[in-house]
Recover the amino acids of this structure.
């Protein structure tokens, strides 16, 4: 993507339709999942999550998933994502197209869903993030995380979906050197019409603490080859002190 109106320049798309058709403008209805071979492919894990959260059976269709195992030397993992759907607007009150990012500890067998509304345990779907400005027949839900209704600027919209959420992060504490399994799955609710997709930011799957954009990151290490860059083979230097200056307000010293 080269359109600055969309927050992701590259990454992975999981769609309930044809991922080749997700690019803007928003001039067509995406119903690409309406094929007999795919219509009845659902996901029981996702159905269980949505039933528990909304009290309504999902009856998932057009399920698309990506699964892999991983281990990390760190104690935290995260990645950034954005959800978009054709259901926004006309059908946002009842069609809970949804997705889940299921992290399983392969030692304990415990699974948790990381795709939740920030600060809650509510799974992300059309009915859990919506703005009733675009359909007054139901109340807004977690409105601050709904970003754009693309039908209002269809001819220049960067993606071919009616609406999209803000960019969010899925994250979890993990145990270093322990094997984990992650399953990313998205599906339509009840019928294969009106596709949805989740966009996952390239390079955002990381094992380590989340980066803060409003702070300065200090990388202290033993520069064995004296090139000013930390190599994978060079050790971090975790004991010492550094001096910094804030807005010409004088020097400050921090010990670590």
């Amino acid at each position: 993507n080269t359109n600055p109106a969309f927050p992701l320049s590259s990454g992975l798309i999981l769609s309930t339709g044809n991922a080749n058709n997700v690019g803007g403008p928003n001039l067509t209805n995406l119903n690409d999942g309406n094929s007999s071979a795919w219509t009845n492919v659902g996901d029981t894990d996702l159905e269980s999550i949505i039933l528990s959260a909304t009290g309504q059976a999902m009856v998932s269709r057009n399920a698309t998933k990506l699964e892999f195992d991983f281990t990390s030397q760190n104690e935290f993992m995260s990645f950034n994502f954005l959800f978009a759907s054709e259901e926004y607007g006309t059908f946002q009150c009842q069609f809970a197209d949804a997705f889940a990012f299921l992290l399983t500890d392969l030692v304990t067998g415990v699974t948790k869903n990381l795709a939740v509304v920030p600060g809650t345990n509510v799974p992300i779907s059309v009915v859990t993030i919506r703005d009733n400005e675009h359909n007054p027949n139901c109340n807004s839900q977690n409105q601050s995380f709904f970003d754009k209704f693309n039908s209002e600027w269809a001819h220049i919209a960067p993606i071919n979906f009616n609406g999209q959420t803000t960019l969010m992060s899925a994250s979890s504490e993990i145990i270093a050197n322990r094997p984990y399994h992650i399953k990313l799955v998205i599906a339509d609710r009840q019928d294969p019409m009106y596709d949805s997709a989740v966009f996952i930011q390239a390079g955002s799957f990381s094992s380590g603490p989340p980066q803060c954009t409003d702070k300065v990151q200090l990388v202290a290490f033993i520069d064995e080859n004296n090139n000013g860059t930390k190599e994978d083979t060079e050790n971090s230097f975790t004991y010492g002190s550094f001096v910094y200056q804030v807005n010409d307000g004088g020097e400050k010293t921090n010990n670590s």
Q: What stands out?
A: The CA atoms of residues 190 and 253 lie 60 Å apart.
